[in-house]
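Exam prep: given the inputs below (a chain plus FE2/S2 (inorganic) cluster), describe the expected output before reading on.
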Amino acid sequence: MLDLAELYQEVILDHNKSPRNFGPMTPPPTHQAEGYNPLCGDRFTVYVRLNDDVIEEIRFEGHGCAISKASASMMTEALQGMGREQAEAMFAEIHDMLTGKRKLDALDTDKLDKLVVLSGVCEFPVRVKCATLAWHAVHSAINTQGPVTTE
Ligand code: FES
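Solution:
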């Protein structure tokens, strides 16, 4: 059986090579926000179409490193169909997991499902901003706060 580190490599490579829900949204989104990391210049725009406070569709586009792209791709899969409050709760859990604020045993790993593999970035503190970039953008998008940067 693959351990978490092997799974991390495999999942990041897969989502980086074939990002899910990548590209513009038609019909246009109801909400969108840009995430920007000024240290490396990586930039993503996250598009969300909310219908009755439910994420009917979520997509992203832009450019970034393998981890930022894979995390954005996995995020779109995870948040599709979720209510705004559920999505916000997941943002908080992912943020705590990626920043090491809460360890895996303090998180609802069933709910996080495949996203648990992203916990591997805790081993590489400089990559935490990569993995959180799109999550900050979606948090901003559904709260209509405009662009966000990692700095
Ligand atoms: Fe820029 Fe990862 S190196 S977001």
